């Protein structure tokens, strides 16, 4: 569009120059003013010459050129307005799709975690019920054994009921900011993955110094923390490392809440660091991921939580041992609740 308008302007300028040259040539060749004076028989009232004619011609051409440019400006403005409106609509639609996709990914993660939490209790309940059925078929019912199995079943039913309450808050949509405790939010998300992490010999080490309430989107921060913990879990899951750790620290500096999540999975290549938050970029095989997880995390932090997030490879010490891994750092404004 801009190139097309530039070509129009250049053509108009060339046309003006050609008209001025023709006007000057005719004026100088035929002495057009003297012909006009002779025609009008008013020689004494005119002292015009070819130079004045050029000035008048130039003014008329300038006026014509200005009118053309004004029409062009209005047309360009209307086109840009339409483009801007379309881009805003697309941005709103993309944000809506992003929120919906993040919710679906979060629900998917929760269902996976619920499956991990429920697998062992359901196996215990099934085994206890099968044992009771066998005893009944063999007419070998023992009151003590019956009570023991019933107590075991009830304990596991209570555990299953508790996990339902624990996970229910994550899938309830919160459209407004709420007051919540930072430490409790972090700990709750760690507990969500505790069974899965412990079953894979992954330890979570915390150093939390944010035991106060803030006003922000609790669900958004939970989605981010769950995503980062999951990312570290997947990085550590298949690593041949004797001690597997996820470290989560929190602190406040200059009224900014800083949450750091890092692991000892040996990090990634430096060439990939700057691309981690790009949509559809993934270091996994295509069958294992589509590269949307970290992009959604980045979008939630920047757009919904109004914060910032960065990532880097980091060397550090723990219990006198050297480790190396990826560290994510979240920064949020300390809006006290």
CATH architecture of the largest domain: 2-Layer Sandwich
Which sheet architecture does the biggest sheet show? Answer: 5 strands, mixed
Amount of beta strand: 15-25%
The structural domain count equals: 2
Q: Taking strands numbered 1, 2, ... along the chain, how are they ordered across the largest sheet?
A: 2-4-5-7-6
Secondary structural class: alpha+beta
Uncertain runs:
42-48, 285-292
Return the CATH class of the largest domain.
Answer: Alpha Beta
What does this structure look like?
The chain is elongated. The chain is built from eight helices and seven strands, in the order H-H-H-H-E-H-E-E-H-E-E-H-H-E-E. It starts with a helix and ends with a strand. With 337 residues, the chain is α+β, with helices and mostly antiparallel strands. The chain has a five-stranded mixed sheet with strand order 2-4-5-7-6. The chain has a two-stranded antiparallel ribbon with strand order 1-3. Helix 1 packs antiparallel against helix 3. Strand 6 and strand 7 form a beta hairpin. The chain folds into two domains: 93 residues, no CATH class; 162 residues, Heat Shock Protein 90 (2-Layer Sandwich).
Give a nutshell description of this structure:
The chain is built from 8 helices and 7 strands.
